[in-house]
Specification:
441 residues, mainly alpha, Amino acid/polyamine transporter I
């Protein structure tokens, strides 16, 4: 007698350390190493810059704690896509997922791949002609790792997170204990004439904190996600916030705000060579390369899960293929491959940085809707027992909503053309959604 076919499911094998490493790994990319001067220039002084990092961290923590409550109630694969579908309807869930899988996710992966190729080229003195092949090759190698069972990608996330924290720790330790500059000095010449203001400085830090929500895409692969996801999101954001503050203070203590302003993006490489010599510069470059690789791994591991979840709901063309899980690895190999193909096209023909920036407006629009969703679910299910409740309700969700509205308004004011393009990208998904819905009827 033939045995009934057992449906292949995602492997629920990721524990707290894996989830925590993915949160930290997908947040800490290259921003903390290159954004120090930009934040100081916009804020107008070292003290204001540190306050901007703190404010950005607190807003991100408020957002993370709010999403953590949703994650504890909707521990499904797809993260934001699943929350939007559950709280509102399939239409809004589809649009949030569409934007992430078609442009936002692949563009972020492509941008990381392109920057990694530049750093590798500088480190090994490779002709810039090879930047695009190196970028595509790096993306494909990390993608290949994630075709294997998720424990390999998770282990890689843990290793790269530990490695990327080494240069972070070095900057903190040498700055705090061996730096002699006045970290909080207000005497920075010529900054105020070009300063964008405290709000713009805080906006820059919010982008440096972006990526914390991606671990929620793995809700179907995390052990006891109702408890683990809130812990990983909240603890990961707190660790990153403290690290960012200490790195910024350490940098200011090492060379002072005036020198940071003068050096711009070269401030941290300058500190590395000053404190450790030429070897220090090389070590820092390796640390940044590992940081980018780890960040890319987290994004390649998480974004295809949104595509898989949408395909499983038959909301995408070729849904059968995109929702396929390999029986041995239990990973959505076709969703991963398509994500890599889109990223490769972006590396070859588009400005991936600009494409990812275009989606900031819409991702924050969906963030606001998700934060409001906490109030909706509490009203809809007043007697439901929650494994995790956002602390200081309703203050914390209101802070998250206010912070996201600040980003949205800032984007509208600073990049209206980009906002229109961003909305256009989302609008392209509407006919796809209705075509798939009508086809199923």
């Amino acid at each position: 007698m033939e045995k009934p076919h057992k449906e292949v499911e995602l492997n629920r094998s990721l524990g707290l350390w894996s989830a925590l490493s993915l949160v930290i790994g997908t947040i800490i990319g290259v921003g903390i190493f290159v954004r120090q001067a930009a934040v100081i220039d916009d804020a107008g002084s070292p003290t204001a810059a540190l306050l901007a990092w703190l404010a950005g961290g607190l807003l991100t923590l408020a957002a993370g704690l709010t999403i953590a409550e949703l994650a504890s109630q909707i521990p499904s694969t797809g993260g934001l896509y699943a929350y939007m579908e559950e709280i509102y309807n399939k239409f809004w869930g589809f649009l949030s997922g569409w934007m992430q899988i078609i442009v936002y996710g692949p563009a972020m992966i492509a941008a990381l791949g392109s920057y990694l190729a530049i750093l590798l080229g500088d480190f090994f003195h490779i002709n810039p002609f090879w930047n695009i092949p190196i970028a595509i090759g790096a993306v494909c190698l990390i993608g290949l790792l994630n075709v294997f069972p998720n424990r390999y990608g998770a282990a890689f996330a843990i290793i790269t997170t530990i490695c990327k924290l080494v240069p972070v720790a070095a900057l903190i330790i040498f700055g705090l204990f061996f730096g002699h500059a006045n970290a909080l000095s207000q005497s920075i010449n010529h900054v105020h004439t070009t300063a964008g203001g405290f709000g713009i400085a805080m906006l820059a830090t919010l982008f440096a904190f972006d990526g914390w929500i991606l671990v929620a895409n793995l809700g179907g692969e995390i052990k006891n996600p109702k408890k683990m996801l809130p812990r990983a999101i909240s603890l990961g954001i707190i660790i990153v916030m403290i690290a960012y503050l200490l790195v910024s203070f350490g940098v200011l203590k090492s060379i002072g705000g005036e020198k940071v302003h003068e050096l711009g993006t070269a401030a941290i490489p300058y500190i590395a060579q000053k404190d450790f010599g030429v070897l220090g510069g090389k070590i820092l470059s390796i640390g940044i390369i590992i940081s980018i690789v780890g960040c890319m791994n987290g994004k390649i591991m998480t974004f295809p899960r949104i595509m898989y979840a949408m395909a499983k709901e038959k909301q995408l063309p070729f849904a059968k293929q995109l929702s396929y899980l390999n029986e041995k690895t239990r990973t959505p190999i076709f969703s991963i491959m398509l994500t890599l193909v889109i990223a490769g096209i972006m590396i070859s023909f588009f400005d991936a940085d600009r494409l990812s920036e275009l989606c900031i407006f819409t991702i924050y629009c969906f963030y606001v809707m998700a934060f409001v969703g906490v109030f909706i679910l509490r009203k809809r299910n007043p007697k439901q027992k929650r494994v995790f409740s956002v602390p200081l309700f309703p203050f914390v969700p209101l802070v998250a909503i206010g912070g996201s509205l600040f980003v949205i308004i800032s984007e509208i004011m600073s990049d209206p053309i980009g906002v229109v393009c961003s909305l256009g990208i989302v609008a392209l998904g509407i006919p796809v959604y209705y075509f798939e819905v009508m086809r199923k009827k």
